[in-house]
Amino acid sequence: MIGAIVSAIVIGAIIGALARLIVPGKQNMSIGLTLVVGIVAALIGTLIGSMLGLTNTRGIDWLLHILQLALAVVGVLLVTRMRPGKAGGTGATRP
């Protein structure tokens, strides 16, 4: 149980950081928010991947990690677009 939590945090941090590198422009996201986006993307990606049979492979599950990364990129885009007053956000403009 503890190993699964630690691996989710580590994989989530890596996936979140990679997603921020892939998304063009500046993202005003904290490290904690990046970690949350990465962990959520990793968990949702694992759920979708297990339904598609992507987790039953030998060695490294490359397709699963690509799916998780794609979900993290979408998550970073959603978070940066939804935050008002931040770079890239669609919220209220400042005078």
TrEMBL record:
InterPro entries: Transgly_assoc (IPR007341)
Membrane topology: Multi-pass membrane protein
Keywords linked to the UniProt accession: Cell membrane, Membrane, Transmembrane, Transmembrane helix
Subcellular location: Cell membrane
Membrane-spanning intervals of the chain: 6-23, 30-50, 62-80
Membrane found in the keyword field: yes
Family statement: Belongs to the UPF0410 family.
The name this protein goes by in its record: GlsB/YeaQ/YmgE family stress response membrane protein
Originating species: Nonomuraea indica
